[in-house]
Amino acid sequence: MRSPDAEVRRAAEERLAGLATPAGALGRLGDLALWWAACQGQVPPRPPADVRLAIFAGDHGVAAHGVSAYPAAITQAMVGTFEAGRAGVNALARAHDVSVRVVDVSVDSESTGPHKVRRGSGAIHLEDALSPGETERALAVGEQVAREELAAGADLLLSGDMGIGNTTPAAALVAAHLGLPASEVVGRGTGVDAAGLARKTEVVDAALRRAGDRVEDPVEALTALGSADLAAATAYVLTAARAGVPVLLDGLMAVACALTADRIEPGVAAWCAAGHRSTEPAQSIALDKLGLEPLLDLGLRLGEGSGAVAAVPLVRSAAALLSDVALLSELLPGG
């Protein structure tokens, strides 16, 4: 996989060092500007002009086993709310000029569509989430969605999620990829109590035991422990990286998918930035593995892509600073 342009990054570092600002004064914004310029392949960089969020929606069999504070019916209701433009992420997207697309990959409903792989994914502690063929179809959905958004002009992609119970398979994927026990990765998701947290940990433990050494292959891990929506989101991130288009990650689901994509094809992480730190322990662990430091840490656990959308102004700010701030040499006599 092609990496962000190292020569452009060096040129960006020189420009950053020459700005009419004290050394290091731009902090993390300076680092973000270097990444953005290297991804874009030019100095000074253009700010992101066409930012697009895809929300991959699906239900999960584990939701019927006490791992979530909300019933599975919420998934379908929220898909309608996204489409009506009334969800939290819609409000943020309007504020920050981000396009929103909802993709029903595996919602447990009568609705059909070109991207529907199945109605809900399997309860991973009892059975595989998907058949191998369903995993292939879900990966194809994510690739297709990414290609469509890129063809429409996207220069920054965001990945969002909607699915009651989805933090359970996402945590299982992180545990499988990093060889960790459930106790280190499982969090409270939508806000389960202590008993719910214990049940969720048991589910992930059982799922990891059931999957065994199949998890050494990242696609097999998606089949055994993931879901159709997570598989689609994995291919979405992978396709963007292959095309040399940066991705701003959201919470646990997006990061688990980026980790999976990076295992499928090493080098994906270089095209990713972390929008925010969620409250889920598995997300922080996976970010550390990917070498990514979140831009925001607001205690968010909404999902939907909201943390990534909230970080978009920081990407635009970083690009503007590297592009529009005068060079110190221009201000000095004889400069």
Model description:
Belongs to the CobT family. InterPro entries: Nict_dMeBzImd_PRibTrfase, Nict_dMeBzImd_PRibTrfase_bact, Nict_dMeBzImd_PRibTrfase_N, Nict_dMeBzImd_PRibTrfase_sf. This is Nicotinate-nucleotide--dimethylbenzimidazole phosphoribosyltransferase. The active site is at 304 (proton acceptor). The chain has a five-stranded parallel sheet with strand order 2-1-3-4-5, sandwiched between helices. It starts with 5 loop residues before the first helix and ends with a helix. The chain is elongated, with a radius of gyration of 20 Å. The chain has 335 residues and is an alpha/beta fold. It folds into two domains: 6-46 and 320-331, 5,6-Dimethylbenzimidazole Phosphoribosyltransferase, Chain: A, domain 1; 51-314, Nicotinate-nucleotide-dimethylbenzimidazole phosphoribosyltransferase (CobT), large domain (Rossmann fold), CATH 3.40.50. The relative contact order is 0.18. It has 14 helices and five strands. The protein is 50% helix and 9% strand.
Contiguous low-pLDDT stretches (5 residues minimum) are none
Overall 3D form: elongated
Give the percentage of residues in beta strands.
5-15%
Number of helices: 14
Q: What's the CATH H-level homologous superfamily of the largest domain?
A: Nicotinate-nucleotide-dimethylbenzimidazole phosphoribosyltransferase (CobT), large domain
How many domains? The number is: 2
Strand tally is: 5
Distance between the termini: 41 Å
**What's the overall average pLDDT, rounded?**
96
Estimated structural class? alpha/beta
The portion of residues assigned to helices is 40-55%
CATH topology of the largest domain: Rossmann fold
Strand order of the largest sheet: 2-1-3-4-5
CATH hierarchy: architecture of the largest domain: 3-Layer(aba) Sandwich
Instruction: Report the sheet with the most strands, covering strand number, pairing sense and barrel closure.
Output: 5 strands, parallel
| CATH class group of the largest domain | Alpha Beta
Overall radius of gyration: 20 Å
What is the H/E order? HHEHHEHEHHHHHEHEHHH
